[in-house]
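Example record

One chain of 518 residues, shown exactly as stored in the release files.
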Amino acid sequence: MSSSNFGVWRPIAENVEYNALESNSNAVMAVADTVRTTLGPKGLDKLLIDQAMNRHVSNDGVTILLSLKAIHPVARMIVEIAERQEQLVGDGTTTAVVMSAEMIKEGKRLIRELGVHPTKVVEGIENGVRHACHLLEGEAKLISINDVELEQVVRTSLASKLDGARLAELVITALRMVGENAKYNGEYDFNKSIMVIRKTSMEDQIVNGIVLERKRLDPELPLEVNGARILLTKLDLKPVKEAWIKENKNYQEILLMENDRMSKSREIVDSMVKTGANVVLIASPEVDQAVEDMLVARGVFAARVATEEIDHLIRYTGAKPVRVSEDLKKPDILGKADRIREDEDNGLIYLEGGIGRNMVTIIVSGTTKETSLERWRATIDGVNAAEAALNKGVVPGGGAAELHIIDKVKGLKLKGLEQVGLEVVTSALESIMRQILTNAGFNGLEKVMMAKVSPSGYGIDINSGDPVDMWKMGVVDPLLVKTMALNAAGEIAKSVLRIDRNLAAEDLSQQALSETKR
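Predicted structure tokens for this chain:
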């Protein structure tokens, strides 16, 4: 690759052998220190203030990280990994960050103080993480949707959240309502069966059906329809664009186009009504006023829906989306539901008794927009934790699962200096319980030592400080959250520890100027 295409790369920090490692590890520590105090049931909150002075209190790891606006490239890597963890499993972002910081701190010590080559450390991390994940899988217990462990997973996940106990009850009820119906290809996928919306004007509730944050297309349309026959359309409902008419200066042509608009609109509405539909849900970008008026005249319940709501509506009602006019002639395109109605006061449309897959909607409230947003995020985290637990199993929580596999990880035999890389992984495994206990007001190191000599599955009660069986205490975590966090931490650590120089590309114009001066 020619430098003429990309400019000249120059060191950001020169002359000191370990400047890059020091700079990068400091960036990781700064990010980790921001979120580590939120870990565990007694973790603390952060007050987030944006440029418009809007305030938001949160202890959600990914929310805090995304608000940091990190400048350092390695800090941005941490945020990206945490965001990916959130997208894949919906929990464990803070755990991933804390473990990555511990790995990098220990890896830096091995490289700087003991002179171990970074590639040896990285190979040890890679093998250690793989072995640790395998050991955690061996400790996991598979559960079903009616097991008490599912309730424990949700409560553990939401223990540190705002109104966590109340939200846990909502989530557990919703999970049991959809039940086995949430399985797709043998695995649970609650994103397809449980919707979560927030309304500050309402109380918390669970609705057996779909709730859309929408209003009817026109106030004169019916407020409620029983025995709903639903047409879901993506048709272009603005057959003649207003811009075409405005751009035309010939009166006769304008009149012809206006007549054409009315004729085509009538044709579209007649075709939709002919299907037998008494409800039309519209996912089209534009709706002609003539189409709207004709739907009102025919007494058809009509509302707009968002693209992301279409899949839910298809699954719940059995409707087949209409994309072109010819689709209106096909049989069995209508979806069905017992009732559709609008709550005018709260701007919601309720769709109940669909003939397709069972779905529920959780409505979470909040005294302010910020609190409702925090409770909404927490509810989704609880649902995601339950999904991970049901699909891959559960392990003891509170850092107990990680702590009790440390000796087995140390027992892994690697060649040469790769063996010391295992210390990086074992330090990370220990860091979770230590941080949770520190956040609970204990001497984390002292309590970890106490838990280490206890039987497998034992951790520390964050209220009494005594060793307890986490299984019996009902403190359990999804296996998938643990393994994903561990893999994410290892990925960050390997990337950071392998960097021996931070380089920045000079602007091409600056390069040309310097070469001219020479």
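Notes: Residues 148-208+364-392 form a domain with the GROEL; domain 2 fold (CATH 3.30.260).
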